Amino acid sequence: MNHKFRCACPITSALDILGDKWILVIIKQMLIEDKRTFKDFTESDEAIATNILSSKLKCLEEFDIITKKQLPDNKKTNLYLLTEKGLALTPIIVELSIWSDENVRALNSIMRDSPEIEVLKSDKNAFIKMIIDTYKVKTENLI
């Protein structure tokens, strides 16, 4: 895996991986919406094109943010799971949710209300831990 980064800046380097408009959406879907198969992703509200989805899943796998496994009972279906590196992005997803609620809601009339946002704002660290723990419980027997 030989990837070119634009410069030595840590933020720019992270954005070289995560800055695409689909990458964090896919991670959010895996972490919060229990998306694990190609079909799960294609059926989501975001409607990502299959060629783009394939490319982004491959990229996430190359950077060890996700791992791909075959289902034991169905060799045709791949299961995509977040790695520890992928789970480490949870605080970014949480902060982005708060920022969006506070700054984008006025611009997006169809943004849904989320009761979790108030819980999230009251104790971010506990909320982050709960999301990660829930994900691990749901996927522990799939690994």
What's this, in brief?
The chain starts with 9 loop residues before the first helix and ends with a helix. The protein is mainly α and 143 residues long. Helices cover 55% and strands 10% of the residues.
Which fold name fills CATH's third level, the topology? Arc Repressor Mutant, subunit A
CATH homology superfamily name: Winged helix-like DNA-binding domain superfamily/Winged helix DNA-binding domain
Helix content: 40-55%
Radius of gyration: 16 Å
The count of helical stretches stands at 8
- What percent strand? 5-15%
The largest beta-sheet arranges its strands as 1-2
Largest sheet descriptor: 2 strands, antiparallel
CATH domain class: Mainly Alpha
What's the count of strands? 2
Explain how this protein is built.
This protein is mainly alpha-helical. Helices cover 55% and strands 10% of the residues. Strands 1-2 form a two-stranded antiparallel ribbon. Helix 7 (116-122) crosses helix 8. The model has no long low-confidence stretch (mean pLDDT 90).
